[in-house]
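S.,

Sequence below, as promised.
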Amino acid sequence: MGMPWAGEGSGTLPAMDADDWNERYSTAEYVWKADPNRLLVEQVTGLEPGRALDLACGEGRNAVWLAEQGWRVTGVDFSDVGLDKGRRLAADRGVTVDWVRADATTWSPPTEGFDLVAVFYLQLPPDQRRQAIGVAGRALAPGGTLLVVAHDTANLEGGTGGPQDPAVLYAPPDVVDDLVTAGVEISVEAADTVERPVAGADRPALDCLVRLRRESSPAEGSD
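The prediction came back faster than expected:
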């Protein structure tokens, strides 16, 4: 199998451990710039700010943007260097984020849960992806929103850029199945393959976009 793709968040990849990601993030510049992902902005704008989790947050650009919008944010990643860059970005922007060093596939979220969980470009082989998506689903509070964006399986043949190893690509049904396997009761609000313009390319990239809401049980929804 070829080198797994280095997506926008780190997480756990077979050939890239925390030390590899620390080296990658060691440049003074941000690997994926300091602005938030446009799909995060599109999908989150209009939601009532509450507690948010950026799982596999990398250098923290999405976590910092969420904090700027009034969310109380936790950013989780296993790269010390990435988290340090997130801290600097948050300080520069005048916001506070709770930074946690942990593996996205094994982290235990707090019992109170989050109103929003974002997982962006966490490109993992199926077994590890299921673990990470399970963590994300269990991190949701009842009624909370999960937003997953990734390089789509269809991008390999029909899109531009991204990983060339099909083992780390996935499609919207994979995310839904992962949550069902994890026993998380969900309501699907969007599950689409979307086009993302790429500067200088003849065709767009194809991204997997899934937005779900965790269902409230009768006990959870009662006063």
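Helices lie at 18-24, 38-44, 61-68, 80-93, 126-138, 155-158, 172-181, 218-221.

Coffee later?
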